[in-house]
Amino acid sequence: MATLARKKNPEVLASHTSRPFTSPIASAIVTVIAVLWTVPTFGLVVTSFRNKEDIQSTGWWTAFSNPAFTLDNYRAVLSSGNAGIGTQGMIPFAINSLAITIPAVVLSVGFGLMAAYALAWIPFRFSDQVFYGLFALQGVPLQLSLLPLLTFFATGVQLFGHQIIPPLHVVGTIAAVWLPHAMFGMPLVIYLLHNFVSALPRELMEAARVDGANHFEVFRRIVLPLSLPAVASIAIFQFLWIWNDLLVALVFAGGTDDVAPLTLHLANLGGNLGSHWENVAPAAMFSIIIPLIVFFSLQRYFVRGLLAGSVKS
Amino acid sequence: MIPWSDIFTTSWPKIAQILAVLAIFFGFYGIAFAAGARIKGKKQNFLALSLFLAPGVILAMTGLGIPAIQTFLESFKNADSSKWVGFANYTRAIQDPDIRAAFYNTTAWVVICPIVVTSLGLTLATMLNKMKREAFAKSLIFMPMAISFVGGSLIWNMMYQYEEPNMPQRGLIGQLMKSVGLPLQHLLLWHPWNNLFLMVVYVWGFTGFAMVILSAAIKGIPADIEEAAQLDGATGIRLFRTITVPMVKTTIIVVLTTAMVGTLKLFDVIHTMTGGNFKTDVLSNRMVDENFVYLNYGRGASLAVLIFLGVLPITYYNIRSLRAERKHH
């Protein structure tokens, strides 16, 4: 993750530059791999629409010689009274996922953009040190911080028997899951946005300063509007990352269904229901449908966010 | 029936919480910006720094910086962190056969997966460049990036599903093995190959990333360089070896190191598919188990530190190239 493609933003999904030649062999190999890559997911889709009896007796590919599809599995996992799924079905877990993802994305990207501006355009003494320090924090695996952070939430900070910081009363609430996500996302978000914000034209900033605008005005009138595309792509990236997380949820949701997001619930279902695919398949489909929609409708921005993190220009 | 009214009863506090967080954040900064716009002179630098930079730095330090130091200290303490034990956790980690197995598995993951993912991604990216109407195929290969590793693990659980040989197969791999006459296996129980079957899930999920990044880099190669090489008679493999690979070397390193860090920290696939059983455990799964199953915080911390030491050379390399980059400007 050394540098950012700030000078040019390759339109990776559209074709450009001259093609030396096209090769049918290349097309064939790519097509075969694309099919191989899609078959597992396709199998899940087909399974989720089959009858329970069919699922338990035959493979999903036999559904095409003898088509019989139903929505019953979806009804079952979304309704109440399905003990294996949860007392109110899957929907409350989707709401938990949203309640975790939205605050975490907004806070990490919001604070991240402001911090990026401060590091790029407000001169102060330890600017470089803070920047490198934050960058180094990217190298800290979040495994390293799980337990101490959990303890901090529960007991606050005590020093020589004095309570310095009181316990944050978040344990067991949804905030105990989104707060760590906002924290863990900070270094990468600041770094990526800093790359973008620091590349804004200096003349633009100086012209505004000459007109008497202070940092607050420069940020609101120039930096914020110009950064929106970068903010969008990093927000989508963060959204998918947090929505799909398991580890943070497992540690901070405290083992209760009350605040468990879809991924955590799904991992538990996989363990408890095993090969009861009539339940697991629609539940899995339900949990991947929102990220898939986000992904397919905003793929361009998502790719741009990825490239921002990893392409040397 | 979907129990909408029950769902609403349990969910409205959470929805209210989302709205409250958004209202507080935007409300506070709305006022701060309105007020801040009037402040002139030296004072505004300090005010802007404390409102812009401090929250991000505080969040990062509370979430990562300080806890990392604490974990480092914990790793030299006993199970309930009441006594200093020196390097005992580390020596026991090396001696414990289960942890050693997890260590070997992690090493295999970190070596095999990044190489497979990067070479597959590079091959695909090169071929996409020689293809018309690439966007659709690209989207399909990239799609698993949007699916959580939990979802991906369940999808592959279904692929690997074992049935008795005389029964109709429900897992696609079992069906394929049966139709070519291979003996059927409990694929996830079949040591040591089960590790490879788990790696397949990661490769499936991550190849799209490598492909997209490398594809962008390959498209960035100036067309005249490629044409000149072709005039010199370089085609196919030779063009790939002499032009493509050297031109995108930096990107290859980025993809390789990203995948290495990813596999070193990988947890979801193991947790969901085998729970670390059948000799498939890895360090980051074992670390969670030490903390939350065996309640041995000291040993869990020592494993976290080992993961950190694995990431450290890559972080060091990144900081060095970042500094070089900054000096360059």
Give a short overview.
The complex is a heterodimer of chains A (313) and B (329). With 313 residues, chain A is mostly helical.
Structure overview:
- The complex is a heterodimer of chains A (313) and B (329).
- Chain A has 313 residues and is an all-alpha fold.
- In chain A, 65% of the residues lie in helices and 2% in strands.
- Chain A has 13 helices and 2 strands.
- In chain A, strands 1-2 form a two-stranded antiparallel ribbon.
- In chain A, helix 3 crosses helix 12 (277-297).
- The longest helix of chain A has 31 residues, at 91-121.
- Chain A starts with 23 loop residues before the first helix and ends with a helix.
- Chain B is an all-alpha fold.
- Chain B folds into 2 domains: 4-74; 89-328, MetI-like (MetI-like fold, Orthogonal Bundle), CATH 1.10.3720.10.
- Helices cover 74% and strands 0% of the residues of chain B.
- Chain B has helices spanning 4-36, 43-74, 88-95, 97-128, 135-142, 149-160, 172-179, 193-219, 223-231, 236-247, 249-264, 268-273, 283-292, 297-328.
- At the A-B interface, helix 1, helix 2, helix 4, helix 5 and helix 6 of A face helix 1, helix 2, helix 4, helix 5 and helix 6 of B.
Main β-sheet, spatial strand arrangement of chain A: 1-2
| SSE sequence of chain B, one letter per element | HHHHHHHHHHHHHH
| Unreliable sequence segments of chain A | 1-18
Proportion of residues in helical segments of chain B: over 70%
Topology:
The complex is a heterodimer of chains A (313) and B (329).
Chain A (H helix, E strand, L loop, with lengths): L23 H25 L3 H6 L14 H7 L12 H31 L5 H11 L8 H10 L1 E3 L2 E4 L9 H24 L3 H9 L4 H29 L3 H6 L9 H12 L3 H21 L1 H12 L3
Antiparallel strand pairs in A: 1-2
Helix pairs in contact in A: 1-12, 3-12, 4-7, 4-9, 5-7, 7-9, 9-13, 11-12
Chain B lengths: L3 H33 L6 H32 L13 H8 L1 H32 L6 H8 L6 H12 L11 H8 L13 H27 L3 H9 L4 H12 L1 H16 L3 H6 L9 H10 L4 H32 L1
